[in-house]
Amino acid sequence: MSKQLLLGAEAVAQGAIDAGISGVYAYPGTPSTEITAYIQLSEEGKAGKIRSTWSANEKTAYEAALGMSYAGKRALVCMKHVGLNVAADAFINSAITGVNGGMVVTVADDPSMHSSQNEQDTRVYGKFAMVPVCEPANQQELYNSIFYAFNLSEEIKLPVIVRITTRLSHSRSGVQQVEKQTAQNELSPEVDGKKFVLLPGIARKRYDNLVNIQPNLENFSEKSPLNKLIEGGSNNVGVIAFGIAYNYTMEVREKYNLDFSVLKIGQYPLPRKMINDFFDANKQILIAEEGYPVYEELMRGYFNNNKIKGRLDNTLPRTGELDVDSIAKALGVELEESTAVPSIVAMRPPALCKGCGHQDVFQAMNMVLNETSKHVFSDIGCYTLGALPPYNAISSCVDMGASVTMAKGASDAGLRPAVAVIGDSTFTHSGITGLLDAVNDKSPLTLIISDNDTTAMTGGQDSSGTGKIGQICMGIGVEKEHIRMIVPLKNNLEENVKIMKEEFEYEGVSVIIANRECIQTAIKKRRVK
Amino acid sequence: MQKNIIIAGVGGQGILSIAAIIDWAALEMGLNIKQAEVHGMSQRGGAVQSHLRISDQEIFSDLIPLNGADIIISVEPMEALRYLPFLSKEGQVVTATDEFKNIGNYPHSEGLITEIKKIKNHVLVDIKTITCEIGNHKAGNILMLGASAPYLGIDVELLKRGIRTLFERKGEEIVNSNIKAFEKGMEISSAIKQ
Ligand SMILES: Cc1ncc(C[n+]2csc(CCOP(=O)(O)OP(=O)(O)O)c2C)c(N)n1
């Protein structure tokens, strides 16, 4: 088979298909979305040989994948970095129970926050849970490491993380596929009936087991194809290059004809012997990590070993993505001055599309709220762009589902009207339970669900609650008269303003469902026709 | 052989079809490719760019270093200027003059053109006029590809085959109008090059 040009995300997907997964479980999130999307469109996905529909959130995805693994089959679960916060309870505890069929957790970090609220580093979670983390540097290595991770997972009976970042996930390169796919595992549920029951007595034993196999995990790292030494001729400075920092380091080495040694790290826990040898062999060490200075901090230690340079002493920038230039500079290369961006160039931030229903929601809402003090709790999705001019409509965006619960807290504090704006997918992701809290506590608030029948921000994936949002609200006890359906269109502005006004004044829980199809979905449908 | 190319535009303008054709041709030539794209939030009308690197050697970084781009291809004039720090001193800019105004503080046209003309090597293309002549208003990207072709170091016939492959399923008429746009673009640049 000839090489195929694949995005990093697609290399994960093709790797998982070829490694014989029976299912992928995921909730969309940049830069991880393309993994599941690729599997859905693959032959195996379309034929239902690999189950691949979207989950309601990362926790449900993680647990379903774990269940598939307990049943003996290989499962892939994917999410963006903050998704692992949502799935963290399941994740941490699955390291204690262990797994049966191979389980690979692909987490896509977003250093520089191209499309995220933060740049948290998943390797910290790997350490926290004490499971192996693979961090490949290029698309081919990524494809290969998915096989490697599934085999490792089945051998050590633990979930294995494959950490990718935006740059790798959203960059294309040639990938050579294997000739023959691995067959899917047969159904073979774990026979040890109590292994997975984390009652304290059993959990202690399982935890001991996890602690005791750590040296073994280190041995795997010493032998891993993802860790390797590139020996140079000089020993003034050596670079420990983690993940894709390896690419930048190697480019600097070639471009400027430098001869330092490089220790490439792509699997954790750290290979202690390799690290020790490298430390002994070089006078100074530059630590280049794509993400938090996790291992720099560890190696530097509390007493600040000054042989080490890195992000913590600002030899490299403390935050954001690395690149060829930042690493060259850290190694003392004099950089040629580059042309400045002419001052005439204006910022062009993302914006709501022409014809988007969220705009009509904000317009109506602003007309009602401008008369009163305004603090609107919101959430994550396209509608977060309502924070920007010309709308200036919302005042918060923290984590998915937070709008409802934060409005509840503010309402409890006495804020009137307490208004929350959430999207349909975010509502089913983690807004429902918050609304239940408000209903049970009778906290006066109005939740506007701006329902565009899709998960628009991440490219229009199916949304779990489509067609069921009203019923869900009713089911958890919102009064029928205070579940109002509106259509966010210019023509309905007057009526929508009136309805919002009524509900904002109501001293109880109310929900306004503003339902109109996402304009991008509508355009796509037209194209297909 | 090594070429570092930045393709620039606004989310939704479809700059990746330009990249896809260059990729196709580079693969045919047996070259290595790395192509960093922007997915996610910025696709909603924000500034987007793709770093495309092709080489007969191993390519390490997915991103082009500062001063490292041989060419910036932009389907929008202000976006061409945004990536100037990446352009090498002898680098080439090929940009459309068609403005995409989705922000309130979009600068004046004359100012933009003045800045572009300060760049040593530049080609300006009026997409709207030419695609109107051709009768395919969607062929702007391919027109820009054509205008860039003389600077890419890739066999022109291969690029044309790439266009055929990409548009094949849309029918002969669409293929032909895109080939025409490509050739028109080449003419513009070739005239300037002489
Ligand atoms: C925990 C978590 N998972 C995923 C994401 C990525 N994400 C941001 S917004 C969004 C979808 C929002 O969909 P919806 O609420 O329906 O709003 P829309 O974009 O359609 O307006 C997703 C998946 C995230 N930020 N946090």
**Strands of chain B, total number:** 6
Low-confidence stretches of chain A: none
**For this entry, what is the oligomeric state of its chains?**
heterodimer
Largest sheet of chain A: 6 strands, mixed
The mean pLDDT of chain B is 95
Can you tell me about this structure?
The complex is a heterodimer of chains A (529) and B (194). With 529 residues, chain A is an alpha/beta fold. Chain A has three domains: 3-212, Rossmann fold (3-Layer(aba) Sandwich), CATH 3.40.50.970; 228-330, Rossmann fold (3-Layer(aba) Sandwich); 357-525, Rossmann fold, CATH 3.40.50. Helix content of chain A is 40%, strand content 16%. Chain A has 22 helices and 18 strands. Chain A has a six-stranded mixed sheet, with helices on both faces. In chain A, helix 16 packs across helix 21 (493-505) and helix 17 (402-413) packs parallel to helix 19 (432-441). Chain A is globular and about 75 Å long. The two termini of chain A are 35 Å apart. With 194 residues, chain B is of the alpha/beta class. Chain B has one domain (2-193): Pyruvate-ferredoxin oxidoreductase, PFOR, domain III (Pyruvate-ferredoxin Oxidoreductase, domain 3). Helix content of chain B is 41%, strand content 23%. Chain B has seven helices and six strands; from the N terminus they run E-H-E-E-E-H-E-H-E-H-H-H-H. Chain B has helices at residues 16-28, 77-82, 109-118, 127-134, 140-148, 156-167, 172-193; strands spanning 2-10, 32-36, 47-55, 69-74, 87-96, 121-125. Chain B has a six-stranded mixed sheet with strand order 2-3-1-4-5-6. In chain B, strand 5, helix 3 (109-118) and strand 6 form a beta-alpha-beta unit. Chain B is globular. The mean pLDDT of chain B is 95. The chains are: A alpha/beta (529), B alpha/beta (194). Chains A and B meet through strand 7, helix 12 and helix 15 of A and strand 2, helix 2 and helix 3 of B. Bound molecules: thiamine diphosphate. Residues 27-29, 58, 80, 82-83, 86, 380-383, 400, 423-426, 452, 454-458, 463 of chain A line the site of thiamine diphosphate.
